[in-house]
Structures are given as C-alpha cells and as structure tokens.
Write a structure and sequence with these properties.
There is one protein chain. With about 260 residues, this protein is mainly alpha-helical. It contains 10 helices and no strands. Helix 1 crosses helix 4, helix 4 packs across helix 6 and helix 5 packs antiparallel against helix 9. The longest helix is centred in the last third of the chain and has 41 residues. It is flat, with a radius of gyration of 43 Å.
Length: about 260
C-alpha cells in the first residue's frame, strides 16, 4: 500500500510539475491530487525537491540501463541508433512527464540536493549516443564529414522533443516516431541520388503539362475591299460635316447681327 501510494504521489506530482512548473505547484495541491492531507504527504517525501529528484532519478536510471543494453548488442551502428530512438521513447512513456520536467526545469535543477547524481546519469546517457554515432563513422556507415557530437545532440533532442508533441498518444506512436526520426537523420529528406552529381528532382504535385494552344492563322478576308470603301466614305462624311458646321456657324453669326439690328429699330 505504501509503495503504490508513493508511486501515485510521484505520478500526480509529475503531471502537476509539467503543467504548472515546480515553483507554482504546492505540496497541498499534490496532496489533494492523491487524496491526502499535506501532513500525511510529508511521511512519504520531505519536500518538493525530493519528489522531483526521485522522478528524474527513476527515469534516468531506466534510460541509462536501456542504453547500456543497446551498446552491448552486436548489431550495426545504424540498427543500434534506431534502437536508441525506440528505447528512449519507451522509457519516456514508462515515466510520464519526466522528460517535460527535465526540459522545463533545466535551469533550476542545479538547486536539487541530489543534482550530482542526476547530472551524472544525464552525462552517461549522452555518452551512449555519442559512442554509437562515433562507431558508425569509424565503420564507414555514417558520414565522416559531419560533427558527431552535434549530430547526436540534434538527433537526441529531436527524439525527446517528440515525446512532448506526442505525449497523449506516445505509446501508440513509438513505431512511427522511431521510423521517421531514424529515416530523416540517417537517410535525409532529399530523394535518393541516382548517380548524377546534381540530379533533377522529379516533379511532385504539379499540373500535367499542357500542349500550347494552336494559334489561329487568319484567312484572307474577302471583305477587305468593302472595308476600305467604307473607311473612304466615312472620311468623306467627316469632311462634309466639318464643312456644314463651318457654314452653320457663319449663318448663325450673320443672323445674330441682322436680328440684333432689327430689334433695336
């Protein structure tokens, strides 16, 4: 009963710490989450720091042990990198929210009374990743032109960031995450080369090529002569209208002059 209650406290604390942060979570909130009063909870853990330390220690102990099993194998480096990804996700699923707590509270972990043990386990886990990647380079499986330390750090951080993204469905997503991360980091995202130094990528999601629309070639117009005649007639009409307008203006001026004289007489 005591062991199960202790595990319940660790599980609920991990959830609260990941959601609210260590500093914002109170002992009373943890006690309420597991159906205890604050005083009773202190029989199991004497502080929040002790709870956080045990959450991380349990997680890292399992992680380092799983990595050691991978390193002891005789498979290729590529296969073992895939195993490193898989066991990382499996251990993260076994210890819910431990990854998120470590990521969120990294700057504050140095204040924990058992930080030295935690830091040592973290360092061991990092060395395991680097050892597998270095071996792959030595064996000619991996690219020797890439910094192995940076490569393993990027890959490792991607794996544990994926835990946060897939927390609610992590157990079901382990296979797909492992396949995706391993493929992207070891094979790349570009299409496979076919021997050409600079292959032309195959078109994707493009509209099918269209034949150019035929250009209509106008046939000789039999009415061209009629159009010329019409233009000539229009020009003549405009000339006649200008002449008529000039005549009307002259008559209007003459009428005004004559009419004005008659009116005054």
């Amino acid at each position: 009963m005591t062991a199960s209650r202790r595990q319940m406290i660790l599980a609920e604390s991990a959830r609260l710490f990941s959601e609210r942060g260590m500093s914002a979570t109170t002992i009373r909130e943890i006690a309420d989450a597991v159906g205890l009063n604050s005083g009773t909870l202190y029989h199991y853990f004497n502080s929040k720091d002790a709870i956080v330390s045990e959450i991380l220690r349990n997680f890292l102990t399992d992680l380092v042990g799983s990595y050691a099993n991978v390193l002891a194998g005789v498979e290729t480096a590529r296969h073992r990198v895939g195993l490193m990804v898989r066991v990382s996700l499996e251990v993260a699923d076994k210890h819910p929210y431990a990854t998120e707590i470590y990521q969120n509270e990294f700057e504050n972990l140095g204040a924990l009374p058992e930080y030295a043990e935690i830091a040592g386990a973290v360092e061991s886990s990092h060395r395991a990743w680097l050892e597998v990647v270095d071996e792959g380079v030595r064996n000619g499986e991996f690219n020797s032109g890439i910094n192995t330390f940076e490569f393993q750090r990027m890959m490792r951080e991607c794996v544990f960031q994926s835990v946060r993204w897939h927390r609610d469905t992590l157990a079901a997503d382990i296979e797909s995450i492992t396949a995706t991360v391993t493929s992207v980091f070891l094979d790349g995202f570009a299409p496979a080369r076919t021997g050409s130094a600079d292959p032309t990528p195959a078109p994707t999601r493009t509209q099918p090529a269209r034949e150019p629309a035929p250009v209509a070639v106008p046939e000789p117009d039999s009415s061209a002569g009629e159009l010329d005649d019409l233009r000539t007639e229009m020009d003549e009409l405009r000339s006649d209208m200008r002449a008529m307008r000039s005549l009307m203006e002259s008559l209007s001026k003459s009428h005004i002059a004559n009419g004005g004289t008659a009116a005054e007489g």
